[in-house]
Amino acid sequence: MASHPTLPYYLTGAQDGSVRMFEWGHAQQITCFRAGGNSRVTRIKFNHQGNKFGVVDADGFISLYQTNWKYSATSGSQAKPYLTWQCHNKTTNDFVFISSSSLIATAGQSSDNSGATVVAYAPKNQLLISGGRKGFTCLFDLRQRQQRHVFQSHDSAVKAIAIDTTEEYFITGSAEGNIKIWSLTNFTLLHTFLNEHARQSLFRNIGTGVMQIETGPANYIFSCGADGTVKMRTLPDRFSTINDPLRNDVKFFL
Asked: From which residue to which does any coiled coil extend (predicted)?
């Protein structure tokens, strides 16, 4: 799912490849951008302006659409992507718009056995952060167009990355269910939440552990897992690196 940056709309992508738009508070879809019978949708995202969005799928393709749902709804015709491109010869797992919709970074699997699982962008530092299937995190400096740092952040696949709006730190989540906070200045570990989400899955074909992480104001962290839980946490003072398994900082649990 992806929510529009300014309007009360959101997009959904399904296992059958369909992409639909809904309005918050309404059960009926507004329009269907892509019908079922296509490859499984792995990620959907709007650009920063909300006038375009992208869809990546399990066949390695990325498709870019104009957010012209009113035209599609009134004309009765299904909207078509203005660009479709196969960027990986296996699965495209994630993508991110770089500053504008004219530059896009993708994460996926091609011929090699490792591949990238997730990608995020820090616009103030112009850093691209990617996570891989073998637990490595890579940081790329887009100004210098080179890899700046690489380290093993987890013992299993990195499934989610989120960046603080101030770009003081970034967060990674893994298939084993751990969440870690890292400094965006020197890439050191600031804090660890062990076993935040159980290494099990309520659903088929979506993996295990942490599925998505988002940051909020006042050092809030929101995460959801394949175990069916959604949690909201507050980062401890100055991101203490001391792990206390008996301490429960969960402010909200669903």
From this structure: none
Q: Which helix (H) or strand (E) holds 41?
A: strand 41-46
Which token pair is 185?
Answer: 């200045």
Output b/e per residue, 24-58; b: 16+ Cβ within 10 A.
Answer: eeeeeebbbbbeeebbebbbbbbbeeeebbbbbbb
Alpha-carbon gap, residue 11 to 55, rounded angstroms: 10
Quick one: tokens of 157?
A: 């696949």
How much of the chain, in percent, has pLDDT values that exceed 90? 74
Q: What is the distance in angstroms between the CA of the first residue and the CA of the last residue of the chain?
A: 18
Backbone angles phi, psi at 5, to 5 degrees: -65, -25
- Single pTM value for the model: 0.87
Q: Domains of the chain, with CATH numbers? A: 1-103 (2.40.128), 112-254 (2.130.10.10)
Residue with tokens 């591949």: 115
Residue 82 identity: Y
β-bridge pairing 41-46 and 52-57: antiparallel
The rounded distance, in Å, linking the Cα atoms of 186 and 20 is 41
The continuous run of DSSP H or E covering 172 comes out as strand 169-174
